[in-house]
Amino acid sequence: MAKKAWGGRFKGQTDPRVETFTESISFDARLAEVDIRGSKAHSSMLAKIGLLTKEERDQIHSTLDEIKSQIDAGKFEHVTSLEDIHMHIETALVEKLGDVGRKLHTARSRNDQVSTDLRLYVRDAIKEIDALLIDVQKAFVTRCEIDKETVLPAYTHLQRAQPVMAAHYWLAYCEKYQRDRERLADCYKRVDVSPLGCAALAGTSLPIDRDFSAKLLGFGGVASNSLDVSSDRDYLLEFCFSLSLISAHLSTWAEEWIIWFTTEFGFLKLPEAYTTGSSIMPQKRNPDVLELIRGKTARVMTSVTQLQILIKSLPMAYNRDLQEDKIAMFDAFDTVRACLELVPDMVVGAELRTENINARLEEGFLDATALMEYLIKQGVPMRTAHHTVGQMVAECEDRGCRLADLSLEDFQKACDKIDEKVFDVLGVQNAVAALQSYGSGGRERVAEQVAVWQERLGL
Ligand code: ARG
C-alpha cells in the first residue's frame, strides 16, 4: 500500500473499501496533462521567489516530463490508495526526486490545484468545441450553395405556414450555433482566472507571486478571494449549460431531419454511412445516428442538474462532494464532442429530395399570408384582409383547389379591391419572392445572408 501524503496524523490504516469509495483516479486521470502544466508553472514561481533553486526547478520540470512520457506510453500505474491524479503524479515525483519532489506542493493545496487543472482543461475543451461548431456552421453554409434554388415549406406547430428558401433553414442553424459560440466565449472569460496560490482556502503566509504562475499558464487574471476559489464551480456549470444548449440545438435539428426522412415527408435522403438497418425488416434504413444525437441530449442536460444539486448546499469552502463535478462535466463534454464530430459530414452528405418537395409544395396554402399582404397593400385593413383570405381558404378547401385556381371573379366577389395583379403573388414561388424584410426567408434576403456567412466563415 502506498504511503499517504496526508498520513502524518493517522495511526491506523484506511479501510480499503473507503479507498475504493473515495478514489477519483478512475475518472480524473485525464487531467494528467493539465496537472503537469500547472505543476511546472507553480514550481517556476517557487523558483522565482527563492523557495526552490533553479536546479531544483529544472529537476522537477524534467521529472514531470518523464512522468508525462510514462503516462502517454500507458506505463503509469494507478493505485487506488493514492486517490487521484494529483497524488499519483506527486508521489511519482517524490519517488524519483526525494526531498526535491517533496517541495513541489509548497504554498499549494489540492483544492487550488484541482480548480487550476479543471480550468485549464475547460479552456482547452471550449476551444475544441468552438472549432467543431465552426465546422458545423461551414457545413450548413456549404448546403446553402447546394440547395440554392430550393424552396421549402416552413412550419409552425408542424403545420404548413409560409415558404422560405432552403438556405434560410440552414442559416437558422448557423445562428443558433453562433449564439452557442458566443456563450462559450463569454464563459471562457470566467474560466480564464487563475486559482493557483489560493492554497486550501485561506491563501498562504509564503511570499508567492500568483501573477507570475497565472501568466505562465496563460490565464487572463488571478482570482481575488481564496475562500471563493476553494468552493467555486460556477465555471463548470456555465460550461455544461453552454453544452446543454448546443445539445438542444443538435437535438431539434436531429428531430427535424428524422421527420423529413420519413416516407410520409420524404424530404430528405440521408447518406448511407449515417443510417443503419433492421435485424428483421429487410427494407429498413433507420436514422439511428440522428436518434442518438437526440437521445444523448438527455445526459448532457442532466449534467447541469447534477452540478446544480451538487453545489447548492455546500458550506464554504472545499468539500469532497466537489470531486463528483468531473464525472458530470467530462460526460457532457465527451458526448457533445462525439455528436459534433459526426454532424458536418451528415449535413453535407444529405440530399433534399426536391422532386418530392416540389410535388407537394403548392399544398397547404403556403401563399395565404402573401395574399393577405397583397390585400393590405390594396388598402384593406389587416384584420379584414385576414378574415377575407381565411374565407377564401375555406372556399378552396370545399372545392378541393388552391388559391391560385380561383378566378378573378371569385376574388373580386370576396373583395372588390382585388385586381388581376393578384396572380403575381399567388403560388409558392411568388410568395417566397415577395418576402423582402430584413431577416426574412425571401430569395434576395437569404442570398445576402449567405454572403455574410460565407465571409464570416472565410468560405
Ligand atoms: N480528488 C479531489 C477532487 O477532485 C481533489 C481535492 C482533494 N482535496 C481535499 N481536500 N481532499 O476534488
Automatic annotation (TrEMBL):
UniProt keywords, alphabetically: Amino-acid biosynthesis, Arginine biosynthesis, Cytoplasm, Lyase
EC number: 4.3.2.1
Keyword Lyase: yes
InterPro entries xref list: Arg_succ_lyase_C, Argininosuccinate_lyase, Fumarase/histidase_N, Fumarate_lyase_CS, Fumarate_lyase_fam, Fumarate_lyase_N, L-Aspartase-like
PANTHER family named in the record: ARGININOSUCCINATE LYASE
Family of the protein in this entry: Belongs to the lyase 1 family. Argininosuccinate lyase subfamily.
NCBIfam families noted in UniProt: argH
Protein name, per record: Argininosuccinate lyase
